[in-house]
């Protein structure tokens, strides 16, 4: 019997597509991280990269759901891992809602922290105005609690780097887990003419 067209064949294709979406997410983060490190970055350039990152995060999340429906053998193990790794990540819901905020309400008020040291102005990190964000009524309860738990404005780089590191670790684990779980199918797939 040919491997082409079997259920395992389509699972392998779906995993391969998922890996592509994961690469897009990672590349969008790295692009965003570069502009965060450049103090000469204009706000509108940062917002473009932020939009790409938030969109790719939503795409990655949605593709993971689709993948797990097709790879139902993995769903219980992955669900438990999501509960332990991602459900406890306070910024997760906030960044999902921030995507909706940027699409349906406004781009977040973004500014640079400026300090005075020995008579000199020191330009610091990019920040979001927490009070400005809290004016929007579209935050879900967890995002609203997250915003209220913060003291002062949001340090964008700190938030995004912590979030990316947790998300990337989970999806790297998922990719390795699926490659191992379907290793026989991947061998057959690679041996197709």
Give a written overview of the molecule:
Helix content is 69%, strand content 10%. It is mostly helical. A hairpin with a 2-residue loop joins strand 1 (110-117) and strand 2 (120-128). Helix 1 packs antiparallel against helix 7 (156-181) and helix 3 (75-85) runs antiparallel to helix 7 (156-181). The chain starts with 6 loop residues before the first helix and ends with a helix. The mean pLDDT is 91.
Give me the secondary-structure topology:
Layout: H1 7-37, H2 43-70, H3 75-85, H4 90-104, E1 110-117, E2 120-128, H5 130-134, H6 141-149, E3 154-155, H7 156-181, H8 183-190
Antiparallel strand pairs: 1-2, 2-3
Helix pairs in contact: 1-2, 1-7, 1-8, 2-4, 3-7, 4-6
Based on secondary structure, the structural category is mainly alpha
What is the global morphology?
Answer: elongated
Count of alpha/pi helices: 8
The overall pLDDT, averaged over residues, is: 91
